From TrEMBL, chain B:
This is ABC transporter permease. Its main location: membrane. It is a multi-pass membrane protein. It comes from the Bacteria. Keywords: Cell membrane, Membrane, Transmembrane, Transmembrane helix. InterPro entries: ABC_transp_permease. The chain crosses the membrane at residues 12-29, 49-79, 91-113, 158-175, 205-231, 251-269, 289-309. It holds the Pfam family BPD_transp_2. It is found in: Cell membrane. Signal peptide: none annotated. The keyword Membrane applies.
Length: 372, 322
């Protein structure tokens, strides 16, 4: 039986968790001798006060939508994919190969080709741990952690020894050709007569991320496969009894998850850097965990949480620029969000459940009293 | 490769293996009691910062060590509250602790020292210096045994010897005491421990606390013995290599020693590509050596070479029957 009404489950619990994380972050800012109110104001104006700020916020949000969806789909099958970081790195490799070695006539075709390669590379990197879990019983969390490190080593090797242009000391690929450069929001919005900052990196892959949110919603809630994934996540034994193959679900959920994480590279590698550098993912794969937890693994929730984290990232960058608060404040906030929405979920939930139970009891006893 | 190079290589392997060994034993206590801990990395990092910071402020490395253990214990307590008291997801809690440590250490370092997230360099009594064992200088010139004793065995900081001593101690505690039997039982079948009238919660908290102390020493070693001061993200994935070593060792103390020494050797070889080339006659990529512990763990975990079976109740919060 559900103790809490649905709105409390979906809105109230994440909101209280976020509030707790916010209060502790404010105390941290206070403790290092800065004014939390001024800091919050600076973050809002820096991230949302101009189209330049919005452009960065949406750029980060695009990354987090992909990685958040990746963690969310795995959560639905009760799999914890910590490997989003490594899968996104491999996705970057796929994008780089597609952009460097195929002469694309137009960016739209290049985007399709690069997205396919990014998804494919990410999916392969997730499929190996999935196979090892389904067939050999290795714990997927440990394997995906190990695969993050292996991916970093692999990327380092390919960049230094293979993809680096001759004579360059920098471990990075050459710049991608002009034809593969994606239009930014400025290019997309100016024909419509809307002024948008030219310098901001948000680009057309934001639309791809939104499409992925909608596509995943359809997949999870409106298809037979989505039903099977959710059924498997709720109860493996019941799903098995209903004829759902655990091997198939584990593989499919992780392949979709890896492909989504890989797709992130269309934004950060193809859209922004326009070449592949070391550490291009900048921890976005891990932020996906916070985003998926915050968004309760629902595509709409992930969308909102991704924008929230995009705001935090851009706001944090502004803070680091104008105050003595280092950028790592965002890492602390991210940790607190993961802690309260993920690990300490019961701490928030238990008192709320008691409250709603007491409310319901009071209501039923009153009704019983009225009936007498 | 001559004898002296070998001694030097083993010497640096031992140095690099020490933090791995301490963290690995820390994870061993926690996971044997059924609490998965992927927050070893974060606890080490927090301890590395606080021990270096306090050592530089007080000038005493021992007070620094205590501060490091304290910081690590605080994070261990958080892990305990989340995963034992509130029966939350232990893996997610570990992830949160890693990020919390990564962010907070830089934030506090910047606030206290204003050196871009690092502590000042430690000198004199604020650092663990190498100890010359008795007679090391006297027999240094004796062929074969001399360098072995004076270079490899002598000359490490006290924490290295503590880490080595922790191995038999852990073995004795786990396999020869009542506490150890109960600790192992609580990781395999907590209900049976509960039936015997022993507190599952108490045992698990004790295991998490021991894990905190060992991670604290590991972190202090990084910043006050291996290096002289804290720099941002200095644990550099060692917590995860320790986790890999734990799986490699199949959750057993003596094997943990061999696994961490092996991974320490990989670390030492990474800085000496010339040695590898002279032994196997071909160049091995540094990136490959760096990734080797992770690759080996995946292979071991998949059961292609031996099978690593974790404690049965690992990761499951215990709910008393009502």
């Amino acid at each position: 039986m559900d103790v809490m009404p649905k709105w409390a489950e979906v809105v109230l619990v994440p909101l209280i968790s976020l509030l707790l994380a916010g209060i502790i972050s404010a105390l941290v800012v206070l403790a290092i001798g800065e004014d939390p109110v001024a800091a919050a104001k600076l973050m809002v104006t820096g991230a949302l006060g101009s189209t330049y700020g919005w452009g960065y916020t949406l750029y980060y949000a695009t990354n987090f939508m992909f990685t958040g969806l990746a963690v969310a789909i795995a959560f639905h099958a009760r799999l914890f994919n910590i490997g989003g970081e490594g899968q996104a790195m491999l996705g970057g490799l796929g994008v780089a190969l597609a952009c460097l070695y195929i002469p694309w006539p137009h960016w739209s075709l290049a985007l399709v080709g690069a997205a396919v390669m990014a998804g494919l590379f990410g999916a392969v990197w997730a499929a190996i741990p999935a196979w090892l879990q389904a067939k050999r019983g290795s714990h997927i969390v440990i394997t995906t952690i190990m695969f993050n490190f292996i991916a970093a080593a692999l990327l380092n090797y390919t960049l230094v020894n293979m993809l680096r242009p001759k004579g360059s000391m920098d471990p990075a690929t050459a710049r991608f050709p002009e034809a593969t450069n994606l239009p930014t929001l400025h290019d997309l919005l100016s024909p419509l007569g809307i002024e948008f900052s030219k310098a901001a990196p948000a680009n057309v892959s934001l639309l791809l991320a939104i499409a992925a949110c909608i596509g995943l919603w359809v997949l999870i809630w409106r298809t037979r496969l989505g039903y099977e994934i959710r059924a498997y996540g709720h109860s493996e034994s019941a799903a098995k009894y209903a004829g759902i193959s655990p091997f198939k679900i584990t593989m499919i959920a992780m392949i979709i998850s890896g492909a989504l994480a890989g797709l992130m590279a269309t934004n950060n590698v193809m859209g922004e850097a326009e070449r592949l550098v070391l550490n291009s993912t900048e921890g976005a794969g891990f932020i996906g965990i916070a985003v998926a937890l915050m968004g309760r693994s629902h595509p709409l929730g992930v969308f909102i949480a991704a924008i929230l984290f995009g705001f935090l990232y851009q706001g944090g960058a502004e803070l680091a620029l104008w105050t003595s608060i280092p950028r790592e404040l965002i890492v602390v906030i991210q940790a607190l969000v993961i802690l309260f929405t993920g690990a300490l979920d019961n701490m928030v939930r238990m008192p709320l459940e008691k409250l709603f139970l007491a409310l319901r009891r009071a209501r039923t006893s009153k009704e019983a009293g009225a009936a007498d | 490769m001559d004898y002296l190079t070998l001694i030097q290589l083993l010497d640096s392997s031992l140095r690099l293996a020490t933090p791995l060994l301490l963290a690995c034993l820390a994870g061993l206590f926690s996971e044997r009691a059924g609490i998965f801990d992927i927050g070893l990395e974060g606890k080490m990092l927090a301890a590395a910062f606080f021990s270096a910071a306090v050592a530089s402020l007080t000038g005493s490395v021992w007070i620094g060590l205590l501060a490091g253990i304290g910081a690590s214990l605080a994070l261990a307590a958080l892990h305990g509250i989340a995963s034992i008291t509130f029966r939350g997801n232990q893996l997610i809690s570990g992830v949160a602790i890693n990020f919390l440590a990564a962010g907070m250490t830089v934030l506090i370092a910047q606030s206290w020292f204003k050196q871009g997230g690092r502590t000042p360099s430690l000198m004199g009594g604020a650092r663990f210096e190498g100890i010359t064992l008795p007679g090391a200088d006297a027999i240094a010139d004796v062929p074969f045994i001399g360098p072995l004793y004076s270079e490899l065995i002598s000359g490490h900081s006290i924490l290295v010897y503590m880490a080595l001593a922790a191995v038999p101690l852990t073995w004795w505690l786990l396999y020869r005491t009542r506490f150890g039997l109960r600790l192992r039982a609580v990781g395999e079948n907590p209900a049976s421990v509960d039936t015997a009238g022993v507190s599952v919660v108490g045992l698990r908290y004790a295991a998490v606390a021991i894990c905190g102390v060992l991670c604290g020493i590991a972190g202090a070693y990084l910043s006050t013995a291996l290096q002289a001061g804290f720099v941002k993200d200095m644990s550099a994935g060692r917590g995860f290599i320790a986790l890999a070593a734990l799986i490699f060792a199949k959750w057993r103390p003596w094997y943990a020693l061999w696994a961490t020494l092996l991974f320490g050797l990989f670390g030492a070889l990474e800085t000496r590509p010339d040695v590898i080339e002279s032994i196997i006659g071909m160049k091995v990529q540094a990136q490959f050596l760096g990734a080797l512990p992770y690759i080996m763990t995946v292979v071991i975990l998949a059961g292609f070479v031996g099978k690593a079976i974790p404690p049965r109740a690992g990761g499951e919060p215990y709910v008393k029957e009502r």
